Amino acid sequence: MPRKIRRIGILTAGGDCPGLNAAIRAVGKTCIGEFGIEVMGIHDGFRGLIEKKANVMALDDFSGILTLGGTILGTGRDKPEKMQMPDGSCRNMTSEALQSYHDLGLNCLVCLGGGGTQKNALNLMKAGVNIVTLPKTIDNDIWGTDLSFGFDTAVTIATEAIDRLHSTAESHQRIMVLELMGNRSGWITLAAGLAGGADAILIPEIPYDPEIVAESIRNRGRRGRKFSIVAVAEGCYSRAEVQKAKKKGVELAKRESRTCGTGCLVATELTRITGIETRETVLGYIQRGGTPTAADRILATRVGTKAAELIAQGKTGYLVAMRGGKCKPVPLEDVAGKRNEVPTDHPMIESARLMGICMGDEV
Ligand code: F6P
Prior knowledge:
The chain has helices spanning 20-35, 45-50, 94-103, 115-127, 151-172, 187-196, 210-222, 239-248, 262-274, 294-312, 332-335, 347-354, and strands spanning 7-12, 38-42, 54-57, 83-84, 90-91, 108-113, 131-135, 175-180, 200-202, 228-233, 278-282, 318-323, 326-331. By secondary structure, the chain is an alpha/beta fold.
């Protein structure tokens, strides 16, 4: 018989995203209002748990936050297993995290986070913490869930960026390269590229050939379309780069976008090959800011209330996923350490190809 849960802690970890506050609100209001479970807000992610930066929250604390971007709890990328110390060294502080959990009188910890958070949560679970996680990330790359909140908002913002690039691209007859986030997955770029009518969509799951992208742009020119929009995911690599890495047996590291990132490289290549003037835009953190879309608010509210229901039933050790339109608990062991990549036969890719959009591997 699962032990009755009387007090939970809630924290947000990893990169922030729109919808976090909507989810915090859903967990808080349902736990307190419906089930009489006490809620402690833990500040600044796992570091805040270790440092016991926490306070009991009242029902009122969850009001007026639905539309807010970011997270009222603050966040961080710290891992209890590898906490960075002031002198730069790393320490495993899992047992300190467990001690704080007990000291704060918690019976369950709700972690709102992406792929990294699922791993951290599983480690804490193995150490003895009752855990429930919620799927948060603009990247939509959490394994086991069809969707994560933050994604729809990011796609909406990225789509608007493509819409706005169209008029300036056409006026100047330029190639416009737009670099979008997504870490190692291409979900944002694929969805926004399709919604915004990009002419080429480059995603990490399909290594691109710059000659092929250039040829598709030249073909547009032959048809009288003198401008092109290329949506590029930050995690993209060319075929040549992928082959080289394979030969050497190394994994391709994330490119440093702060200097010449993926968009910049693609823009440089396309100018060199086509001779057409090319400009590059890096949309960056704009994709993570501001108010969540209605779809993200609904998703965050649904998984948040479902989490509260599971907690009230004493069921822990799960990610509350959205599968086939239904909230479903998925065991954390199944989720942690895996990544949800875009399948190369995804219907959005099929549609893109049928529309003559270049995916980087064929003209
Ligand atoms: O996971 C969300 C995300 O915005 C990724 O798309 C991006 O690669 C990364 O976070 C940026 O990380 P940071 O916030 O640490 O700069």
